[in-house]
Amino acid sequence: MNQRHSSSGFAFIVLLLLILLTVAGFFFFKMATPAPNIPLAGNSGSLTNLPTPTPQPTVELLAEPRTVWAGFITDALGKPIAGASVSHLGNNPSPASTLSNDNGHFKLILVQGTAPQVSIEAQGYFQVQLLLSSDSSATYTLFRGGVLEGTVLGHKFYLTTEEPPAPTPIAGAVVEVAASSGWSISITADEQGKYRVTTPPGKLVVSARSDNHADVRFDNLEVGRDEVLSRDLILPAGVILDAFIMSKDLPLIDARVRVYNDALDHADERSGVGGKTRLFGLASGFAAVHVVHPGYQEQSFEIIVPNDRLGVRKPFLIKKSESFHVTVTDHQGHTLADAGIRIRKDRRTVTETTASDHAALSVLASGQTYTIEVRPPVSNQTTENKLPPRTFIYKMPAEGPGELKVELRPGGRITGVVRAPNGSAVAGAMVLIQANGLEPGQAPPPRLVKTNHAGLFRSQPFAAGSWTVSISHPQVGTMQLETTVQEGKDRSLGALVFPVQ
Fold first, then answer.
1. pLDDT by residue (tens digit) across 124-140?
2. Alpha-carbon distance values, 54 to 58, 60, 156 (Å)
3. What is the domain count for the chain?
4. Pairing of β 146-154 and β 233-235
5. 105: in domain
6. Which CATH number covers residue 188?
7. Bridge-partner residues for 239, per DSSP?
8. Residue 243 has pLDDT above 50, yes or no
């Protein structure tokens, strides 16, 4: 009896321990589980001592807004062109090219706010560059041309005792093609030096350029419509010029050194340590080395680039300059410190800067004559304040500093719509505007604009006076007229129709 009572008591104790363990485990897991964040309505002042949960950042990828530009591409007869390429000109992170479908229709997607300046081309048709219209049904016309193709080759230097090696292909050479109508294009040769380009029919000027070879230029090429003209462009071996820019035995750092020659070599470098700079790929023959450094008189040096040497070393000594200031005001007397200044001599740009940059302006040689173009700041080119550039002939004093005071007055833009003999709009026509009745050097540089898809052109502001407007298109023809611009007023020429050829 006593033994049975003892066994039942032990069982009761074990059962009690199990119950306690179960209850303790329940509360342990209950406390370990985080309480849900339940929003409370009403006054939550009693919860101010509780920790505020940290909000988790939400990553959301926002795509930039896009704009769809659309239109139709046809040939001169109005037939749709399938497979025409429409490519955006400029930096654009969005898909920047597309192809037209069988109906000639295309859609180009650009980041919203991007100017729709594009090139349009197709096999057998030469490229046009224009600004797309916001009208999605606009038509863009391509014209058939001829094909110029070939390989860009380059010579290398060799010893006179050696057999002349054959020229080798130049990968990445640049080929520039220009037509008499004003059309032009620049393309890059492939890894084998091969190039191919469709051009307007007619005479062409072709230049081939390479950093390590002398550039060449051909002005006697002519391509017919639907003709394929094969021409290899052979570049001579380029000469290296080591130039040392000095002033009274003092080396000048950051001087601009350019070389001008008949081959129109692109040679433009800055002097470094010790006043030294190296220019590659120069053509042999006569050349002018132009040196410009702030605080020193600009100067051109005539040299002969040898054809039997890999390189040549020459020092160039320039003198200290006098100061030169340009003060620009508008017609209301406001000073335009950011007005653009371009100074030229012998049709070469000496410097291009702003009126407030006195150091860059103080490079004129004493007693020398220059052409100075003064342009308004970009911020002043508004609809209400149309200030055209002005051009002056200025002679720097033989002794002492120089100064030029300029007043810019309102002008007007020249506008018009160019049409073919049948009345259709002519897109991509070249409009050249030149001043009349001014002495050479006093006239502003001619301005070139293109017509848009609707045949419309709108020039930059021109000063009051007489102007000649020359319009040309490779397929439609040419025409010329004279007009006048009054101060502060735009000049509309209305519809300009090409004569029947």
1. 999 988 888 888 888 89
2. 12, 19, 70
3. 5
4. parallel
5. yes
6. 2.60.40.1120
7. 282
8. yes
